[in-house]
Structure formats: structure tokens, C-alpha cells
Amino acid sequence: MKGCSRKRSAGVVMVLATVAMVALLAMVGLALDVGKTYGVRAKLYAAVDAAALAAASAVAEGSDNAKKAAVKYFNANMPPEYLGSAFTLEEKDIGISFNSEGDATIDISATADVPTFFLPVIGKELIGVGVNAQTVRRAVDLAFVADNTGSLSSVGTQVTARSQDFVQKFHPSYDRLALIHYAYGAKELVSFKDKRGYDQDGMVTSIGSNFKYSGHTNSSEGMWAGLEAHRKAVNPASLRVIVFFTDGSPNTFSSEFSLGGITYRGAIRSGDGSSGSTAGLWWHNEVNSKLPSAGGFYGTNLYQQLAALPVEDNLHTGNGDKFKLVDSNHPRRPVSQLSIGATPAEYYKKINHISRNLMEDMAERAREQDIYVFTLGLGSLLKQATGPDNSEVSEDMLLRMANDPRSADYNSDQKEGIYCYAENETALGPCFEEIRKAIIRLSR
Q: Which residues have CB under 8 Å from 267's CB, separation 6+?
């Protein structure tokens, strides 16, 4: 009897062990299949995210092109039969709609069938995985401020062409673009419309007709025109941007000047070299037009007529726009009033310093008003020390204007833009595209 009992116990243990083993294997199999499913789902999410970004980037070219771009990027990010799974994203699975403010909402649904290894024993050969994603591409108000100075004359054709390409990369029905060009002064060629959208063909034509490359660099007047374009805009978008393009340092500024007892509103210039002569006057609201005066043009004899520098910018005093010109406390380039009997070299240095200060101060004012600033610099001059101090590298100013994180003066409390450097005219297109993509990322 005892022997029989031991045999029965051994049999029970074997049965229980077998059942436990089957259960354990089932649990391991389930864990492996579930783990595989989670891996596929994560990959699917990443692919859908890439598809949504692609659609947001391409929506300016129309909803059909945005859907095609989404499918293309989805397929590029999903390896064929990843972990043996079959993936599906079709254009019909992508919805794109616009609200009255011009914001585009993109909805994407993608699925995958994940084959199982162990669950077929219970009749489960496939696990279906579905991912739904929604992204909003905000409409943008963008002021494009373009350098039209004489130093660009040798590459003017390429600058014009790449500028035309850039302004065609936004949605003509929902985004809004303004166009400003500058040299001695600045002129707004195209204003923001009161309603959403802009005339792409008209802007391309305006660039082709008006981009003429001559004169010195009044960067601050260009920046002010970009800032003013935003402040005049009716029903502004939640995303506001200034894209500022140049190939060098500012050397010209505008204000009111007392010359020979008469007050004139215009622009005076220095130069980029370590020494030189000041000259003026030019219209501040025209790109390259001399300002007539009773005694003819002051030209390089300007310093003989200008007894004192204006203390502040007194052309643009509305909307809190006063900027100090004579400022001994400026953090980078202190400027004091002209000394009695000031030499041409003193005029030259102080006018150059004011020109640089104003450009950066106006860019900072734009950022303070929640406007992103993106800067694009062209050519090797930006890597060289210029100006009367012969110590400042020009691209450092463009980094500060954009509040690029690479800037030594980066301010985390203000809007963060980027600076892109184009070594030559061939690199202009990629730089414009880098900035466009950065704007699109902000719009999501």
C-alpha cells in the first residue's frame, strides 16, 4: 500500500509539473509576443510622428502634397516587415483641416499586423496595433528682411533666386509674408494682408523687380521695418517671425541730424574698415536715394557740419521705440558724445558703433515682443574681424540677434531663433531651407 501511494504521488507531481511547465511557457510566450507588440507600436509611433512633421512641412504646397509627403516619410521610417509585421498608412488615413486663423490640423491613423510566435496555440496568429496622432501646424506671420547692399552685387542673381524660392515655401492661403529690403535705408515692398494668406506670385515678381544691389548697410532700419510690419498686422498669428539676411556688418544708421542749423531726417554711414570717412545723407525710407539739402549733398564733408550726435533714435519714437544712441552704458560698444573739434576718425568710430548697437537693440526689442528672429549670413566676411576696433567678428552679432543657443550672450528668457551661415552662394538654398524647417517645427 505504501509503495502504491508513493507511485500515485509521483504521478501527481509529474502532472502538476507538466501543467506548470505549460503555463510557464504560455506566460513566457505571452510576454515575448506582448514585448514584440510594444516594440512595433513604438516604431509605429516614431514613423507616424515623422509623417506628421512631413505633412506639416509640406502643407504649404497643398493638402494632396502634404498627404503624399506623410506617406513617403512613414514608409521611409518603417523598415519592410519590421519584426515580421505588415504596416499600413494610406492617404485616406490622413485628414487635414484648417480653421479661420489658418492653423492646419493633421490627423493620421496607421496600423500594423504583428505575427505571434506562441499565441497561435490559442488561435491568435496576429495582433493588430493601431496608432492615432494629431498635430497642429500653426499659421505664421513672417517678415523677410533682405540685404540689398553693393557688396552682394557679384552674387545678386543667386541671392534673388534663392529669396524667390524661399518665399514660395509657405501656405499662400493661410500664412502671411511681408517683404523688406534695405541698403542705406529700408523699404517695405509687400505688407501683411489684413486677412490670412499672401500673393506668392506677386512677391516673387517684387523680388525680381526690386532687388538691386548697391549702397551701404543700414541693418537697423531693415530690422525696424520688419518689427513695424508685425505691429501693423491685423489679427496677428500666434507665431510671428523675422528672417534677417545679410552678408556683412552694419555701418549706417538713421535719425534726425542737425546740419548747418537745419534738422534733416535721413541716414549717415561709416564703413567696415578700421578707418575711413563718414558720409551722408540718404533717405531712411528708400533703399538707395540721396537726400537733397539746401547746400547740396554733404557727402564726406558731413563731419564738418555735424556738431553733435543725436542722443536717441528720434525717427521711430512710437510704440516704445526709443533707442539710445549716445550711451556710455551700452554693454558692448559704449558711445559718448562727440568731443569738441572731433577728428574724422572719431566720427567714423562712433557712427559705426551706433550702427551695430541699433541693429542688435532692435532685434532684442522684437524678441521682447514675442517675435522670433532668424538670421542668415552669407560669405567669408562674416568670419572676419571688421570695423574701427578691428576686433569684432560679424557673425557674433547675428548669433546675438537670433538669440541662438551658440551665442555667448544667449538669453534663455527670450525667444530662441537660429543663425545659419552660408559660406558661399551655393549654400544659400540649404540655409534658407534650414530656417524654414526650424519655423515649421515651431509651428507644431
A: 184, 185, 218, 221, 252, 253, 254, 280, 281, 282, 283, 284
136 has pLDDT over 90:
no
Identify the band that residue 93 occupies on the pLDDT scale cut at 50, 70 and 90.
Answer: confident
Q: Which option is the CATH number for 140-251+285-443: 1.10.10.10, 3.40.50.970, 3.40.50.1820, 3.40.50.410?
A: 3.40.50.410
Higher pLDDT pick, 368 / 80: 368
Please report, for residues 39, 108, 115, 300, 307, the alpha-carbon distance to residue 111 in angstroms, rounded to integers and kept in the order given. 14, 10, 13, 72, 76
CA–CA dist 202, 164 (Å, integer): 10
Q: What is the 3-state secondary structure (H, E, C) of the chain?
A: CHHHHHHHHHHHHHHHHHHHHHHHHHHHHHHHHHHHHHHHHHHHHHHHHHHHHHHHHHHHHCHHHHHHHHHHHHHHHCCCCHHHCEEECCHHHEEEEECCCCCEEEEEEEEEEEECCCHHHHCCCEEEEEEEEEEEECCEEEEEEEECCHHHHHHHHHHHHHHHHHHCCCCCCCCEEEEEEECCCEEEEECCCCCCCCCHHHHHHHHHHHCCCCCCCCHHHHHHHHHHHHHHCCCCCCEEEEEEEECCCCCEEEEEEEECCEEEEEEEECCCCCCCCCEEEECCCCCCCECCCCCCCCECCHHHHECCCCCECCCCCCCCCCCECCECCCCCCCECCCCCCCCHHHHHHHHHHHHHHHHHHHHHHHHHCCCEEEEEEECHHHHCEECCCCCEEHHHHHHHHHCCCCCCCCCCCCCCCCEEEECCHHHHHHHHHHHHHHHHHHHC
Residue 355: closest CA among 386, 399, 317, 320: 386
Q: Where are the domains of the chain?
A: 2-137, 140-251+285-443
- Answer whether residue 9 shows pLDDT above 70: no
